[in-house]
Amino acid sequence: MRIAYSTYALQKVDPFEAVERVKAIGYDGLELNCGADWATAPDRLGEDERKRMVEAYREAGFPPPVMMNLIHICAHDEDVDQKLSLLEATCRLARDLCWVDQPSVVTTTLGKQTGTWEEARETIGEKVRPYADLAADHNIRLAVEPHVGQEMDTPEKARWLIETVDHPNLRLNFDYSHFLMLDIDLQTSIDLNAEYSVHTHIKDGRMTDGKVQFALPGDDQLDLVDYLTRVRASVLDVPITVEVSAQIWKRDDYDPWETATHSFKNLDQARKSLG
What is the pLDDT of residues 150-182, one digit of tens each? Predict the structure, then answer.
């Protein structure tokens, strides 16, 4: 059972320092966020830096990074050509940072559309397919993440999307926290989504007075031993990647390394209890 971290929570940290310090904490991998405000955005990471990044990952013993870019590919009233261009740049970066003979993974969300899920599902397949086709052109598996507050917010909807579009390069990012907010059972979520998932995010939290309150893994209601036990028993065989919510990393008192260390300790303790 491998545990990874995401630079989503390390926006202001030098990415090469991030590789070293995340490795020193004990993590087994590092997802790279490549949003516009991160140093690893495709247009900010030049050829030399990309080569250095590959060297840093290989020296750390990490696998090639999963790339995270919140493009919101189905969001209402946004420029599709611009989003396709951004995805292509992200795919090229993912391939430049991959040194093994296997597909890379890029994870994103569908974004908020308009109306109900019943309305959204009438067009969602045709909206998603061009992005899956583009991913296929670059040997990328596009992992979309169901998200609370967006139309695709349950494991049933996520499974419907994958099976309806029926594209080999369209897969899921299994982030149970979004289902947890809606009181959806963990085993049900795994049963419905694990076979189509090529990446994970993990965080904790609860819905309070109708508002989502995210927490670090193991700091709220998520039983990490139960979570890891059930994931290990499933077909899901990818690192469990800590994604720290912006609700946390945008706080004035946020300490990136205290947060990364605390999250690792919680998960590592649960992992060790599995034997």
Answer: 999 999 999 999 999 999 999 999 999 999 999
- Beta-carbon contacts of residue 244 (< 8 Å; ≥ 6 apart): 6, 8, 9, 203, 216, 259, 260, 263
- For the segment 181-220, what is each residue's pLDDT rounded down to a tens digit? 999 999 999 999 999 999 999 999 999 999 999 999 999 9
pLDDT digits (tens, 9 = 90+) for 18-77: 999 999 999 999 999 999 999 999 999 999 999 999 999 999 999 999 999 999 999 887
The DSSP call for residue 202 is: B
**Which domains does the chain possess?**
3-273 (3.20.20.150)
Q: Give Cβ neighbours of residue 142 (< 8 Å, ≥ 6 apart).
A: 87, 106, 107, 108, 131, 132, 135, 169, 170, 171
